[in-house]
Amino acid sequence: MWCESTNPVLSLLVHTKLAVAIYSRESMAAAALNSSRLLQLKTVNNSAQCRSFLSSSTHRSFKLKPIMAALTAAPTVGISETFSRLKKQGKVAFIPYITAGDPDLSTTAEALKVLDSCGSDIIELGVPYSDPLADGPVIQAAATRALARGTNFDKIIEMLKEVVPQLSCPVALFSYYNPILKRGVERFMSTLQDTGIHGFSLSWILQP
């Protein structure tokens, strides 16, 4: 879900042409409460396929996530352009969220394609983390299942390299800081750029 907010950015990571904006969940929740329209789906031709896929899921809830900032070096139409187009049309963005590797990465790959064909404006893909304190019980459970199946950041990236070029909507990655700390900001952001990811959402940075 996208909501415009006038609250200041808490932190900003910048590497070459890539920028990641980090917003507080509290400011986004406040913005969501003030929004008169929370969700608007696009009309698509293959709605039967979408209904079939959604009916097989045991969870049908939307979760408010932080703003996802566009990676400005993305070679295709990205997140900023998507929001600009929707704003001109008087619409809000439909941004479904799924956890990578739940139940496995092959299913995740197919889910990304189905969500794209169902009319998603942007897809947010969560990187499972062993201590997801910023998430609720549903996403925590999804992360636990994904990690139990051996899902890790490198495997997710390899899957995305194959899938992202097949999608018509931008994909944003959601992660905790641990994968960045492990690899370093420069290497991490370079990896995202090479993968074709259009955005990145980072949760819970402690300020000094």
Describe what this molecule looks like in 3D.
By secondary structure, the protein is α/β, with parallel strands linked by helices. The chain has a single domain, classed as Alpha-Beta Barrel (TIM Barrel). The protein has helices spanning 25-33, 47-55, 79-88, 105-117, 137-148, 153-163, 178-183, 185-195; strands spanning 11-15, 18-22, 69-70, 97-99, 123-126, 171-175, 199-202. The strands form 2 sheets. The chain has a 5-stranded mixed sheet. The longest helix has 13 residues, at 105-117. The radius of gyration is 16 Å and the shape is globular. Residues 1-75 have low confidence and may be disordered.
Properties at a glance:
TIM Barrel; 39% helix; alpha/beta; 13% strand; single chain; 208 residues; globular
